[in-house]
Amino acid sequence: MPGARALLLCSLGLCLQRGLTETRAVRHPPARIAIIGAGIGGTSAAYFVRQKFGDHVPIDVFERGDVGGRLATVEIEGKEYEAGGAVIHPLNLHMKMFVEKLGLSARPPSSSLLGIYNGKEFVFEESSWFIINMIKIVWYYGFNFLRMFMWVEDMMDKFMRVYRYQTSDYSFTSTEALLHALGGKEFIQRLNKTIDETMQQAGFSQKFIDEIVTPAMRVNYGQGAQINGFVGAVSLAGTESGLWAVDGGNKVVCTGLLYASKANLIKGYVNSVEQKTRPLRTGEGAVHLYQVNYNTDSGESYSQYDIVLVATPLNNGMSGIQFPSVVPAFKKHYHQTVATFVQGQINSTFFGCPKPCELRPTEILTTENPDLFFSSIGVVTPVKVSMKQSLGKPASDPVWKVFSPEPLTAEQLRLLFVTHGEVKTRTWLAYPHYHPPERLPPIMLHERIYYVNSIEAAASAMEMSALSAKNVALLAYHHWYDHLDKIDQEDLNEKIKSEL
Ligand SMILES: Cc1cc2nc3c(=O)[nH]c(=O)nc-3n(C[C@H](O)[C@H](O)[C@H](O)COP(=O)(O)OP(=O)(O)OC[C@H]3O[C@@H](n4cnc5c(N)ncnc54)[C@H](O)[C@@H]3O)c2cc1C
Ligand SMILES: *[C@@H]1O[C@H](CO)[C@@H](O)[C@H](O)[C@H]1NC(C)=O
Ligand SMILES: *[C@@H]1O[C@H](CO)[C@@H](O)[C@H](O)[C@H]1NC(C)=O
Which of 1, 192, 440 to mutate to test the pocket of ligand 2 (most atoms within 8 A of CB)? Predict the structure, then answer.
């Protein structure tokens, strides 16, 4: 779609001048680098940009809201709970490395008993006895569970190649090229099929897809088995054991990375990015810069940069950076997910207990049912591991987190809870509305404007943002210093084996 891309560039006011890099004779470091967005994507980009470009390049990070973005907490009765991105996979190596480097620590998420509710009753209820679970699982689903773990492991094996590629400094100019280098045609084709089709073709039973896979999609992405097969597989990896979170809240990784990168945080709202040309002092040629126009509390301002990294979704209604005529892939809307936190006692009658009884599941996922007004409800624990349990204090009601597409009405709250205290809500435009065939937006928005969030159209997760940030930092560096042999190399898996 070269036409569409040209349109986008023109809308940035960039279509007049091309061929910037030729005028640069000496390979001096860039004078300034801008990053728009201080979520996990922007702050990890700051970290990797610092690592690649060295100590002396000034880096400005623009943020209109709170550092952390979609990693945020809410407070209930003096304790904080994860309201956005919550759990991290044990093999998410960038997140793991950040936590180690920043001197933070991991905390296990609350241990829970899983129940899968179809609107009338539980179709599956986990027991606290391992052996009973095994029997139940095989009884209900045959070997589908085992096969799923093997299937996910096979994907993870391929996915893990990214860390070797990045350690060896390789980068890619598009998300398709990156995914292709990891899992070949198979990964790319997954973007064109639903997870439902993908798993049916791989031989999984429809019962398993409806009762186990779909609920996992609904809790992780607020959408059912019609999402693309790539994000679907990422979501299934999120059902594995060993998941963790960051002690103190996942967002502290973002503040930590910002600090470690010695970047300059500008609390401001970026309105536009435009290209500016300035003649060289020597009189020969000109330099081309990107001007970032932004608003702060003290009014309008601008700064000029050699390189700009965009680390926020550019989709309609997301970032407010004006793009009058957009590439189709940017038009995709983001899915609304409302997180409601309720301290109270759950209504066991609602979940099918004949008379008030003790409801055992503490993590309730749901199957696809148009009558259900929520997609999951589960007990959550505070982000801080508390050393001293509140001894002597009467045990208070648990805090539940409900995910739903729309805010819960008072009536719906009364249905779900027998009694409740404090209620807090956070409404997110949470992740893309996935619908294959997925069209991925470009990484290269212009010669030196890079789009970290391109990867979200394939799958949105903290680690995805972090690895895209590293890819973009490497790419910007190799472009700047003309290391073309580190960009878009084919057959990297074989190549790296022979390099070792
Ligand atoms: C409810 C929910 C649950 C989730 N669960 C998980 C999970 O369990 N595990 C997982 O890995 N992922 C999860 N995710 C996804 C994960 O949170 C995101 O993929 C990730 O946080 C995205 O980070 P980002 O930095 O790319 O974007 P963001 O965090 O959105 O950061 C973009 C930043 O840019 C800023 N910005 C935007 N426009 C401008 C502008 N014009 N000027 C200045 N600043 C601007 C925004 O304020 C924002 O801070 C979940 C997400 C949600 C919402
Ligand atoms: C995926 O679908 C798109 C659009 O329908 C098509 O252009 C592309 O060739 C397909 N890719 C694969 C790998 O099937
Ligand atoms: C609990 O659920 C039942 C069944 O849906 C409903 O009739 C009742 O109103 C709910 N609320 C309370 C407080 O029992």
Answer: 192
